[in-house]
Design goal:
heterodimer, A: mainly beta, B: alpha/beta, Peroxisomal Thiolase, Chain A, domain 1, two-stranded antiparallel sheet, 14 helices, binds zinc ion
Chain lengths: 167, 387
Amino acid sequence: MSKEILPGTPLSSEEFEKSITIEEHPTLEYRWDDGIAIGRYLKELKEGRIIARTCCGCNRTMLPPRMFCELCYRPTDEWAFVEDTGVVNTFCVTRVNWDASRRGPDEPPLIPAVVEIDGASKGMGILHLLGEVDPKKVKIGMRVKAVWKPKAQREGKITDIKYFKPY
Amino acid sequence: MGLRKVACVGAGITKFVRRAKETGRELAWEAAKMALDNAGMTLADIDCVVIGSAPDAFDGVHMKGEYLADGSGGFCKPVMRHFVGGGTGVFSPIHAWQHIASGKFETCLVVTEEKMSSCFPAPAGAFITIFDHTTEQPLGPTLIWIFALEMNRYMQRYGLTEADIAKVSVQNKFNAIDHPAAQLPGKITVKDVLNSEVLAWPVKRLDISPASDGAAAIVLTSEHKARRITDKPVWVSGVGWALDTAYWATRDLYYPQYVEKAARMAYEMAGIREPDKEIHIAEPYDPFDYKMLHHMEGLLLCKRGEAAKLVADGVTARTGRLPCCPSGGALGVGNPIAATGLMKIIELFLQLRGEAGKRQVPGDPRIGVAQAWGDLMQVGTVVVMSR
Ligand SMILES: [Zn+2]
């Protein structure tokens, strides 16, 4: 290329920190619709059940449920309850929150996992958290079961399942 | 196919830094002007401009294509901005290739820019909205979680250790010592990686590329233009791209099927039947050390599960049989998302012209492949270049 020394002016850490911050706090909030498929999924979570959707084109029982099959590109066919148990497909152990802040020293680490739910097609996993387990003892392939919030506290959210624990 | 041949005739790049004083526009201008100068062209020679830049949420600048257009030489020209997350930088030359191969334009200035440092307290926070708003966001996920999930699944599937994977970080940061744009070059050891802060086990700080500011640009032209501009055109001989489902938890993360799809598309166009034997040099996307391995497998450069052994045996070193990330990669040069992919394309351009200086791979390489990956771990973008 045409230049020996490339353009670009790195700022020092000091300059980085003392940069002028223009704060804006626009009042913006989003009110997302839950949709036909996920709407029903959430309604069933409130009842303490997990519901999937079947497609007779590819014979999959799909989780999370969806009203169309992305493989067959046709409408899905039926609702089907699946178990609240499953297998850990993969997991990690972390103190990092969504905004890159760290959990406090007194808080236990989080154990996010992909859980393949029993009754759904092989590989149909969902993201959730593991609990009531020593992070060092978690294994891929471990069987786990949902720990639900008490009925009165359930709101029709994915967090109506507190976490999955070994069983 | 009725498609015209497309050549790369010039390249420009800024330093990749933690925080640049320059605005995104100024970075784009520096890289784009350098690419034009390198090709011996002026803006008047450019028919159209394509701009690659990743999420607007990084800069807090909406309509970033429009914002960057002036600095990218787009004034009163046909300008198009594209975005496929981390896959953007290798999609950029594909987008430009479409413009020229179709016969619509003779020349295209390709500009990629990213300024991640503007986002406080950390650019990672800008990623919360890529997760499903109803079924995932309430769990508080961040990107590093899913990379850790993927790395763990990959390690478990093939019985790999954290040390096997750390070797990639050691190699790429070492390679970056010779790259003039590099942000985090250095001689580190496997032990350094293993002892660095655990962010989301098994991912540690030194397994990860840094957040960066930077820009990169190239000029693509039709064949007859290229022949007049240079006696060393580098051809865009294969392009491929594929997008997997956003239901990322419902596919097994150990293998990037979408990368294989994209690679097969690019190899077919380039007439490559045995990529592991025919490709001389590779720039797989390496935002994390395990990703280089994952992507070598998706690119069919080795059998599944065998990439780590190639690194351990020195096959992927700059002097090895199949150099991977001779640039220093995202791990060593830095990772201003869209500009990283184009940095890899520029590395192939320089290597295939024999102009990579201290980084030059021996053996007169003639065919290279570059790849990037992104969105919700679902896009593969692949370009084969040859001379
Ligand atoms: Zn189907």
